[in-house]
Every structure is written in C-alpha cells, then in structure tokens.
C-alpha cells in the first residue's frame, strides 16, 4: 500500500509504504537488528509500555537530538516503559552513535536489513528507503495509543504529546 501527501522533505512530497496505523489498532510485529546483529522483535518487549521513536538517520542533527531527548526522558520513566529508537542506519553505525553519544537508556535498533518495521508501521519512504520521523506509543497489551508522523521530515516530533500519553497509561 502506497500513501502520498503524508510527509515531505524540505517541502518535496514523499510516498510512504505500508498501512496507516491509528490509535486503537493492534501494533503489528516486526523484526529489526540490534548493534550486535541480533534480531529483536516487538514481542521481546511484551508487557511493557513501548515508546517507538522513529528517525530517518542518526547522522542528522534532528535525529541525533530526538534520540538524545528520549534517552534523557527514559532515565525519568518507570521500569515498565521501554523506549525503542528505530532507523534505517546500519547496526554498526547505530552502535557507534550510541557509544559516542552516551545512549544507555533507550534501545537503538536498525531496520536496514528487511524494512520490516517500516513496512509494518507504514513509515517506509519509497523514494529514500528511510523511515519517516514518527512516534508510536503502545500500551502493555500492544494497542497503539498515540501516533505522530511528522509532516516535514526535517522537523522535530511533539515529544510532550507522546510523553503525556505515556503518563496516562
């Protein structure tokens, strides 16, 4: 399924591949890789509230700040909340970034191999093979409670709205 008119980069329209997920939907499973090339799936975090922070590439300033912000927020959250950052960066680049940036609370993962997450969550950008900047909040039962796909790829998401949803869960 292709969807146009959802996101742009510097004003140029892009095409998203995958379904348009909404609050109330059951989150689809996916498989991504951690920095050691180990497969990680949504099921690995069952029973936890999950914040999924999606970034196009950690090598860009906004993505860098997005992961750093959520890593800092993770230190303030309870143990039943996990923050996953997913990008199309290679697993080695993700590990290097996290080591250099001191990312130790959020889990940074790579969708590079199969684009499993991007296609399942409808945020794979056809023209760039990157993920659209977005945030998804899932409750402990795997129900999506918050969705934000940032309309302009170069802008920040609404961190406060996502975190507000988490505090209500």
Share in β-strands: 25-35%
N to C succession of SSEs: EEEEEHEHEHEEEEH
Low-confidence stretches: none
Order of strands across the main sheet: 7-6-5-10-11
Number of helices: 4
What's the β-strand tally? 11
Radius of gyration: 14 Å
State the helicity in percent bands: 10-25%
Distance between the termini: 31 Å
**CATH class category label:** Alpha Beta
* Overall form: globular
The secondary structure category is alpha+beta
Overall mean pLDDT score?
Answer: 96
How would you describe what is shown here?
With 169 residues, the chain is α+β, with helices and mostly antiparallel strands. It has a single domain, classed as Glutaredoxin. 24% of the residues lie in helices and 31% in strands. The chain has helices spanning 61-74, 91-101, 116-121, 159-168, and strands spanning 2-9, 12-17, 31-33, 39-41, 49-54, 81-87, 107-110, 124-125, 130-131, 134-138, 144-149. A 5-stranded mixed sheet has the order 7-6-5-10-11. A 4-stranded antiparallel sheet has the order 1-2-8-9. A hairpin with a 5-residue loop joins strand 3 (31-33) and strand 4. The longest helix is centred in the middle third of the chain and has 14 residues, at 61-74. The radius of gyration is 14 Å and the shape is globular. The mean pLDDT is 96.
């Amino acid at each position: 399924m292709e969807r146009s008119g959802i996101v742009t980069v510097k004003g140029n329209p892009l095409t998203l591949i995958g379904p348009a997920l909404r609050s109330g939907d059951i989150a689809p499973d996916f498989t991504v890789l951690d920095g050691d090339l180990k497969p990680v799936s949504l099921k690995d975090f069952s029973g936890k509230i999950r914040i999924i922070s999606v970034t196009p590439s950690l090598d860009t300033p906004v993505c860098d700040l997005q992961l750093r912000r959520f890593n800092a927020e993770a230190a303030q959250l309870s143990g039943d909340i996990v923050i996953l950052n997913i990008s199309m960066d290679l697993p080695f680049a993700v590990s290097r970034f996290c080591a250099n940036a001191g990312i130790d609370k959020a889990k940074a993962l790579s969708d590079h191999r199969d684009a499993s997450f991007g296609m399942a969550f409808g945020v794979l950008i056809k023209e760039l093979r990157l993920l659209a900047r977005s945030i998804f909040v899932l409750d402990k039962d795997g129900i999506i409670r918050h969705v934000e796909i940032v309309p302009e790829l170069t802008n920040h998401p609404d961190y406060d709205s996502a975190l507000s949803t988490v505090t209500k869960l």
